[in-house]
Predict the structure.
Amino acid sequence: MAPDQLTGYRLAQAIAEGAVAQRDARAQFTGAIAARESAVGAFVHLDIDAAYQAAPTPGPLAGLPVGIKDIIETAGMPTQCGSAIYAGRVTMGDAPIVSMIRRAGGVILGKTTTTEFAHATPTATRNPHDLGHTPGGSSAGSAAAVAASFVPFAVGTQTGGSVIRPAAFCGVAGFKPSFDLLPTAGVKALSWSLDTVGLFAPTARDVAFFAQAITGRELAVALPDGWHPRIGVVDMQAVRDASPAMCGALAQASEAAARRGAVVVPVALGEAFEVAQAAQVTVQEYEGARCLAWEYETHPDLLSPQLYAAMTAAQDIPTPLYLAALDAGRRARVELARVFETVDVLLLPSAPGAAPDGLGSTGSAILNRLWSLIGVPSVNVPGRFDAKGLPLGLQIIAPFGADALALRAAAYLEEC
Amino acid sequence: MAPDQLTGYRLAQAIAEGAVAQRDARAQFTGAIAARESAVGAFVHLDIDAAYQAAPTPGPLAGLPVGIKDIIETAGMPTQCGSAIYAGRVTMGDAPIVSMIRRAGGVILGKTTTTEFAHATPTATRNPHDLGHTPGGSSAGSAAAVAASFVPFAVGTQTGGSVIRPAAFCGVAGFKPSFDLLPTAGVKALSWSLDTVGLFAPTARDVAFFAQAITGRELAVALPDGWHPRIGVVDMQAVRDASPAMCGALAQASEAAARRGAVVVPVALGEAFEVAQAAQVTVQEYEGARCLAWEYETHPDLLSPQLYAAMTAAQDIPTPLYLAALDAGRRARVELARVFETVDVLLLPSAPGAAPDGLGSTGSAILNRLWSLIGVPSVNVPGRFDAKGLPLGLQIIAPFGADALALRAAAYLEEC
């Protein structure tokens, strides 16, 4: 069987069954990198020979390569956080998430690009679907590396929308789990209330397999015959403001799910959610000012003007406003639990539209902030495109702790 | 006014009001260090002149010195985690908690001893109340440094009982806040579900002042006339197993609070809490095996035999057992919310007795594990002693997020 017919979990299983050799799988990804990495620029550190020097641990990831966002500490590789301040910095040891991947049989291939400290300043990475477009951010390199078939699996982080948005723009599955399901230790922090480690893979089934391999939890997708979710299609201002193409994709997906047998109903999210969506920015920037205090005070000249300006503004956020923002998140959490009394999952766009033109901005996190603040699982479902062939991502939201349900519903929708 | 009559928040206020000079306060602490640090051994890194080289930021901490547990990254100082693996390691930048202290006007004086990676292997630090006794662990140096008047404030972390227990053994106030109130970024992780940054100061009022100075939250103690808490005195097996002296201190404190006007009632904590107490160990060790995977795999020879054995055992904890342990914590959290419908706070011993004799063990965390897993605030209340003069600590527990209440009730009890 030719390995390039397979990727993600099917490739891992084929290797486990002996149908594909590890070296052929390796050649498949190395070939893709040789062909396109110079154009895409997904990696900030890549040494393929060094990565494969030690034999991988036996495990479900079957020696397949994994890309790690460059704010995550990785033994033997630099962790530079997209910042000149950290140029050439090599830390000791692995972040727990990296150790967990190695133990599952993954090979850490290299470090993928990140916006500066996972904030908004763009990377030089390009969208593999159209090099003139942004891949999104902040986990730009991880999303692009999976989209370009450089790796079958990659790791990123989300504070506002940094997993789901780049996954959507790059047309791959992205999984932001429930808060604290994956450890953030050894990850350069931007906001301790929001930072969440997330995963990328080609499809929802692939990202669920990857999550199960890392955690040992039962997250891999099983879709029993006759299982149909009750889907609430989110109605709120940011959804209504999405592009016509995105609104069309949402309507098309809703209809397809209903045809397949899902209960599909509109769900209006009211005032408490609009307030929480806005509050997320306050939490992120208030905590960001504290997480990046040393960098701001000792190396202001090495920060981008954009980040320096954002951090300067953040110094003045009053603590009572921050506490009110945390409270807004708690209220939305309670309200959301009520919403989930009548539907299993929510469906809405992952971003206002396809990837914006150019590399000057990573796009808007407006459709992600709420779920980052509430801490519930979110999965970007790839497979839909606009007229120009750019991916349009939809996201599934599930209750806190119902990560397996989120992944299953995402696979259901992906296959509609 | 002689500065040595004052410490904690009263000293900070006296400096702010101009009644005490910063240099006199500095001389007070430096003198105590010169007199006793060689016997106590609270610091693993101390360079007093370097610490005071830059002028402190103006702020409520008024240039007072602060000790930082050596698993917390601190700019310009080594962060060695009590491990030969990390000998001489200097990381970039400050953990957010350190930045927050500097911004509040604190001077980072040095790094305080920690058990190896904040697990159980003891430090060489001695209890300032009796050098033949352990100060407890894992935040041994921070508790001892405050008890010996080397610093008025110090920072530690708790995963099992690593703030409340050493505070109790050393006779100082310890504050383990609600989970995630203080950032754990830049802290070497042992368990991402449990690790909590905590604070030490001479009294409950002092530690509340310190917490407010760092966070800007309204945590400083105000005790209005006529305010009396409803106190539930915890009845569970681990409390019944406490030493006679400790049981006596608990009874005496309960009676004193009732005399002052508090409602004091017994509260039996049943099966769900006993299960959760045991489950905390499973969570800690399962996650510990992942947090210390790199150290275990690449430097087994540089781990203590005790930690190596614990980590070896932890490799085999099945994931379903870990998930059941997390579930036990969630069930206890729900049950505890019900308990707090009839009382404001809970009262129980901070440890089974006074500090054990010798330095071979840091003592038992049996009375702390439950609260670490549930994530609720806990304050060690100092001021009681056994017949030999060793401190006996009692702890106040409050609902999640009710940190100000925990501190207020602790001050109330301290003043009974």
Summary: The first helix of chain B runs from residue 8 to 16. Residues 60 and 104 of chain B are 6 Å apart (CA to CA). The first strand of chain B starts at residue 43 and ends at 46.
